[in-house]
Amino acid sequence: MFSASPNTxxxxxxxxxxxxxxxxxxxxxxxxxxxRAGQAxxxxxxxxxxxxxxxxxxxxxxxxxLRAVQAAGNLAxxxxxxxWADRGWATNPSEAEIRGWLHFYMGTALMHTGDLFQAxxxxxxxxxxxxxxxxxxxxxxxxxxxxxxxxxxxxQGDHAALLFDEAAQAYEAAGRLGQVPGCTYxxxxxxxxxxxxxxxLPYLETASSALPESDxxxxxxxxxxxxxxxxxxxxxxxxxNHTCRAVLTGHDVRPEQVADCEWILGRNAVIMGDFVAAALxxxxxxxxxxxxxxxxxxxxxxxxxxEIAGVTSMGR
Length: 316
Known about the structure:
By secondary structure, this protein is an all-alpha fold. The protein folds into 3 domains: 8-108, no CATH class; 138-216, Serine Threonine Protein Phosphatase 5, Tetratricopeptide repeat (Alpha Horseshoe); 218-316, Serine Threonine Protein Phosphatase 5, Tetratricopeptide repeat (Alpha Horseshoe), CATH 1.25.40. Helices cover 73% and strands 0% of the residues. The chain contains 16 helices and no strands. It has helices at 21-36, 40-50, 59-72, 75-90, 96-113, 116-130, 134-137, 140-153, 157-173, 180-193, 197-209, 219-233, 237-248, 255-271, 275-289, 295-314. Helix 6 runs antiparallel to helix 8, helix 9 (157-173) runs antiparallel to helix 10 and helix 13 packs antiparallel against helix 14 (255-271). The protein is globular and about 60 Å long.
């Protein structure tokens, strides 16, 4: 869930020994260029080899590694992130700043591997340390943002909305105003997912009007998908399908966005009674979702697949 600019500073999270600063700089530049070229999986392989030669005070390489995990997005990548965090804890770091980042890094990874309660505990530990460590307060909004996603995943939609609002306030306090529209969108998206389409509209419209100020390049696509689900809920199926297909034909659409569009197309097909098309869309949604691996999204898709299977088995 957490995302940030490639230029965001990141505190190193492994207490390991630097042997050659020049070599570390070269390796860091190599990883950065590979990531820019879209070679996230290869970056993960290389980073795992390099980490034993890096130090806690090499922030850029650690930040590249987190971005690579996010870009790869699959379960194996997030599992690798958990393993890296475990290696960091094994060094028994004494600095509060490093311990704070380990909590944040572990919590973010555990969200995707499915251990939501432990992820929440890790993120709460980060917030506790961040309250006393000035450098970490800049990221308090990110931890609250992730915790809001956790609460929504646990079925606590109202609590999630409050945390997204707290995240927006934390971003404002840190001067990160470009992150605020994304928080507003998330409140609206949560309402649409819960079936409260009309309550969602003011939040989606507010986020849409703030697009020029947003630091999130994917926000426009996310808003289109939210509108497509809104249209599906109010029965405007053709408009919903048109929006989804327009998103799918766009450039640089992320796997989780493909999954959401295919899921909406699948549920629309069910409503229209076309179960063959519905099954195809559900399969496409699942194939895309496993490349990102966010358990609540997979749960939605699996529920759709089960619904389709149930209807088609009764018709035999």
